Amino acid sequence: MQLASVDLNLLVALDALLAERNVSRAAERLMVGQPAMSSTLGRLRSLFNDPLLVREGRVLRATAFAESLVEPVRAVLAQIEAIVNVGTAFDPLTDHRIFSIMASDYVALVLLRPLLERLPALAPNVQIHVRPLETVPVDSVRRNQTDLLIMPRELMPSHLDLPFEELFTDRFVCVVDKDNPVVGAELDREQFSELPYLQLNQGLMTSIIETRLDELGVVRNIEMVAQSFVMAPFLLPGTRLVAIVHERFARELMSDGHFRILQPPFELATIGEGMVWAPRQTADAGHRWLRGQLAELARDI
């Protein structure tokens, strides 16, 4: 087969189909009609002599051959995009751009929300799509599914082979309901271990807080486990629960007089949040603008 005879736009459609495993959603992703996407799927099946997606009940499953194409297709499209964008300027006041950022709800609150407040004036046509952290977040960057990953350096691979920039640091505090009858002005280690404990994880990832408490040998009387830090302000009121959260998170959401913010009765090292991106994005003007905005906001936190 000669490359000149192949419509390279088919690869864009193939990438969408393999990502969504749904013709309608793939069509929406590329802003085309469902009949057009169905026709494109037919052309792809003829091109590769493989059904690619087969119906099993109410869902479409990728064939083994289609699965083998996922990474190569994304890599090729990423390289083409990088070539096309070399030297391309980015004007935030007029250009349209969608940035996908993978981050915790904590980062979304303390860093991305201030960014969104800036966008109407600085970049009215820019959209930010925030994705929750996956079990292995860095893989999403490598697969070109995420433009930027923001997370603690401690949770990244020890031999990170991607560009990384430190953004800001934070420390941890204990929080309880203001009317908690068994907690005074201070909290000691024995009391902490006796209190019912609200364990806050980040989605499927165990919180770095829990890892550090394990390392310190801190006993917890776990009464509830939640998969989001943002749930803390809604779960603590009226209970004797104690939770550990980032200080900036507590100051943002829990300084309204309904909670007490206390120092932990043990040493918890500070945590550093940083951003990671794919090497192909380093020279991209729009991506540079985004990183610059986040770095500037991080300095003001």
From TrEMBL:
<dbReference type="InterPro" id="IPR000847">
    <property type="entry name" value="LysR_HTH_N"/>
</dbReference>
<protein>
    <submittedName>
        <fullName>LysR family transcriptional regulator</fullName>
    </submittedName>
</protein>
<dbReference type="Pfam" id="PF00126">
    <property type="entry name" value="HTH_1"/>
</dbReference>
<dbReference type="InterPro" id="IPR036390">
    <property type="entry name" value="WH_DNA-bd_sf"/>
</dbReference>
<keyword id="KW-0238">DNA-binding</keyword>
<dbReference type="Pfam" id="PF03466">
    <property type="entry name" value="LysR_substrate"/>
</dbReference>
<dbReference type="InterPro" id="IPR050389">
    <property type="entry name" value="LysR-type_TF"/>
</dbReference>
<keyword id="KW-0804">Transcription</keyword>
<dbReference type="InterPro" id="IPR005119">
    <property type="entry name" value="LysR_subst-bd"/>
</dbReference>
<dbReference type="InterPro" id="IPR037402">
    <property type="entry name" value="YidZ_PBP2"/>
</dbReference>
<dbReference type="GO" id="GO:0003700">
    <property type="term" value="F:DNA-binding transcription factor activity"/>
</dbReference>
<comment type="similarity">
    <text>Belongs to the LysR transcriptional regulatory family.</text>
</comment>
<feature type="domain" description="HTH lysR-type">
    <location>
        <begin position="6"/>
        <end position="63"/>
    </location>
</feature>
<dbReference type="GO" id="GO:0003677">
    <property type="term" value="F:DNA binding"/>
</dbReference>
<dbReference type="InterPro" id="IPR036388">
    <property type="entry name" value="WH-like_DNA-bd_sf"/>
</dbReference>
<keyword id="KW-0805">Transcription regulation</keyword>
